Protein 1
Amino acid sequence: MRICVVGDELATGVGDARALGWTGRVVARTHFARPAMLFTLAVPGENSTQLGARWEAETAARFGPDSEVENRLVVALGRHDVAAGLTVARSRLNLANILDVADANRTAAFVVGPPPGAPAEGDRIAELSDAFADVASRRRVPYVDTYTPLAQHEQWLADLAQGGGTYPGQAGYGLMAWLVLHTGWHSWLGLPQDEVA
């Protein structure tokens, strides 16, 4: 199995002293029958329009060409659409296009939504997360809402504050990983969930 994670710097775990981020923690808690390859393909500051322009070429170089390889795509959406001033309609279309191309390529997709950031952006990020969730739902693609459970979570807010209000630390990435692991990750991979605690 080859899993490509495409997204912004949050996908790499920037701000995590252990350098694991949520992706490293999720993979550490996932027991594959055979060794899997995980590729984190992140671009700092990237919005969904920019992601839509590059993801296919970058994943194609890493996905297996033959039928014996299972190719999986994780779309890790960040908060940069807000700063870029993209409309919710444009953000929706960007994700829809990514998921439609992945489906046409017979690549199973999994979407992780944007987590809370600066309080002033809270309403826009919440609206963006809801829009992304709707796009994924319409395509029967698993979606992890990281905004709603973390927006008022004391540990997340404290961790974010320690990181200057932009990036979480170990605790924050741990919370994101827990949400991913408990929102269909194992079933998406066709694996038992008995390892999740």
Protein 2
Amino acid sequence: MFDSLRARLYRIGFNLFPAYRRTGGRVTYVAPDWQEVRIKLPHTWRTRNYVGTTFGGSIYAATDPFYMMMLLKNLGDEFTVWDKEADIRFKKPGQETLYARFTISDEELAAVRAELADSETDSIDRHYTVDLVDADGTVHATVRKTVYVTTDRSKRV
């Protein structure tokens, strides 16, 4: 129950944090285990571009922090996680609210830990993809994030 309350507080915190708030996006769900996050990006005067569709900067900014945060929360203090690169592919102009669902599986977390446990590997890059879709499931944009993960072996138990 405490983890669920903490996840709700993170959701509220994201939505109040000025840098995220200005994207126009809203966090609608954070799983207690931080393996799923959902957002929505309403199509409003704040997120519209000159031609009346959803501004690409809002689309990207609304998706920016989540894979990094999810890895930070799941891997623990002995890991350092940074966003390294991003690529966005616009597929259809958005004129309605867009939604994104970020997930990281137990298998992915185990793979990250296993790859970094290799004594010859000090850091890795992981690639994650999220689609921004409308209420009907039509993909309007795909964001691909590259996340850098390294470990401080001196902090390992």
Protein 3
Amino acid sequence: MSKELEHKFVTELENNQNIVHKVCSLYTNDRDSHNDLFQEITIQLWKAYPKFRGEAKFSTWMYRVALNTAITLYRKSKKRVRTQDYDSVIFKIKADEYDDTQERQLKLMYDAVKQLGDIDKALVFLYLEDKDYSEISETLGISEVNARVKMNRIKNKLRTILNP
């Protein structure tokens, strides 16, 4: 691979690395798993980059590769023994004036989303990233109508999970 192509890839990755971190947060429970998944997604992006034709935005292509990599590894990891969630055992010091309401609500939402299926998780993630349905459908390889219908069903599922 040429130095120019390598430089272009590194620049695009640096500019869009938050996408990968968000995907990692959605599909992992601890820092080590997050870092491992980040590394694996980066490797997959690097391998696939020479085939990137620029027909879609780099970020859209990156979402697709990141989500596909995460889903593939997540499915493989389901066969492993489940361990304690890192966030549930980490010691946190809280100041008296600190209001953690929003943080707790966000954690509840993430916990609820983690109960969804692989594609549903990806759809919610893209929706929360303010992607429009045409970009969501392109990223996930489903029709726009299907994306809308699935999202409405997912919203109902999340309501049920969050308000039993």
Protein 4
Amino acid sequence: MSLAALALAAYVSLPAGHIASVLARDADREPATVAAFAMRERPVTRAEFAAFLQAHPEWRAGQVPQAFASAGYLQADGAADAPQTAVSWFAAQAYCESEGARLPTWLEWEYADAADATRPDARSDPRWLATILGWYARPANTPLPAVGGAPNVYGVRDLHGLVWEWVDDFNSLLVNADSRSAEDPDRLKFCGAGALDLQDRQNYAVLMRIALLASLGAADSTASLAFRCAKEIAR
């Protein structure tokens, strides 16, 4: 895929709105305000990331500094139209910058993620939750399919049922007054304790994503973790 094709990556606009975030604590129950923004319609594919590496060889495996990529960086196979996984937060952010974009914030991702095909917020629908949890129950050792699932009400695809995704502020999702530093060997214990403050604890699908992201460092990567980009909308 050429660099020109990269520039034509499809973004869809999401209107400003409010969301009762799962991350809201007892002292902050008011819905969070989300400004209008644009989000990549699909996760970044392996073909797109390969084109990025041609233009930015400093991000290739074996050339990127260890501080920016762990040992598993880009160590995942798949078809060209499958999402690019095994990529660090640093590399994902660099890719988004190459498109004049950035990684979405958690609130932006959660706002887009809450929608189904017809409703901006389907999280109270048990059938919606059951469909997502059914994906979690499937074996994780099969090749990832191509991006391009059915769109939600905003036109965003593949937020569920395909991969996990990086967000810009992944390392602050479970921070509260009793959180410990990233160097603390008991950090995950406090991440788990922080989850007790979360609202909508029945939304296990979203809480699983939060737990995964909060356990990672920016240089980490996994075979099921991909990314997409977001952009500001000029006012």
